[in-house]
Amino acid sequence: MSKRKQAEVPFEEAMQKLEEVVGQLEAGDVPLETAIALFQEGMELSKLCSRKLSDVEQKIEMLLEQEGETTVVPFVLEGEDK
């Protein structure tokens, strides 16, 4: 899958495809060459999903009202230092 096409794939679709690839590899009944190709595809899908989650995490912002004014602040999970 080209980088351009990867960017257009929705997260849910990439995750579903990754689960299918993992299922095929876990079944263990694919030839070695196919297993290597599936592993490579799975790694690319994993990176794509991780990158999309990071992008969304950076976009999430919260609106806080402090002293009568609404302020936009980045969303930070507990335990994360950003």
Q: What does this protein look like?
A:
- One of its GO terms (molecular function) is exodeoxyribonuclease VII activity.
- It is found in: Cytoplasm.
- It is an enzyme of class 3 (hydrolase).
- Pfam families: Exonuc_VII_S.
- Bidirectionally degrades single-stranded DNA into large acid-insoluble oligonucleotides, which are then degraded further into small acid-soluble oligonucleotides.
- By secondary structure, this protein is of the alpha+beta class.
- It has a domain at 11-67: Helix Hairpins.
- Helix content is 62%, strand content 15%.
- The chain has three helices and two strands.
- The protein has helices at residues 3-8, 11-27, 32-59, and strands at 61-66, 69-74.
- It has a two-stranded antiparallel ribbon.
- Strand 1 and strand 2 (69-74) form a beta hairpin.
- The longest helix is centred in the middle third of the chain and has 28 residues, at 32-59.
- The mean pLDDT is 85.
